[in-house]
Amino acid sequence: MDITGVGEAVTGVQKILGMFFPDKTQEDIAKMTQAFQIVQLQQQADQAQTDVNKVEAGNVSVFVSGWRPFIGWVCGSACAWNWIGISIANTICTLLKYQITLSPASLTEMMPVLLGLLGLGGLRTIEKIQGVAAK
C-alpha cells in the first residue's frame, strides 16, 4: 500500500477508463483464444468421424462397409442416366414414334452427394499413392 494513496487512485482511474476504453490487446487475445477453441472442437469432431469411418470400412459385412460404394454406384448411375441415357432413350423413342419424353433427375439432390463422394474419392487417391490402400 502506498502511503500517499496515489497508487490506489491510479488503479481506480485505470479501472474506470478500462470500462470506457477497453484494452484492444486483451480483446484480441480473447477472440483468438475463442477461435482456437472452436478449431480444436472441429478437429475433435472430424477425428471422431474418421474413427467411425475406419471401423465401418473394416467391417466384413457388406451392409456396414458397402453402403459408401453403393451410394457411389447409385449416384454414378443417375449421372450417367441424366447425361447419356436420357438422350439415347429420347432418340430411340423418337425413332420408334413413341410420344414420350423422359426428363432428367433433379441435380439439386444429386450434386451434393456427387461432390461429397468426389471429395472422399480424392482423399482415397492420396491414400493409394501413399500406399495405405487396402489390398
Topology diagram in text:
Elements: H1 6-20, H2 24-57, H3 62-65, H4 67-95, H5 107-129
Helix pairs in contact: 4-5
Please tell me the total number of domains: 2
**Which regions contain 5 or more consecutive residues with pLDDT less than 50?**
none
Query: Which of globular, elongated, flat, extended, rod-shaped describes the shape?
Result: elongated
Largest sheet: none
Describe the structure.
This protein is mainly alpha-helical. It folds into two domains: 1-48; 61-135, no CATH class. Helix content is 78%, strand content 0%. It is built from five helices and no strands. Helix 4 (67-95) packs across helix 5. The chain is elongated. The N and C termini lie far apart (75 Å).
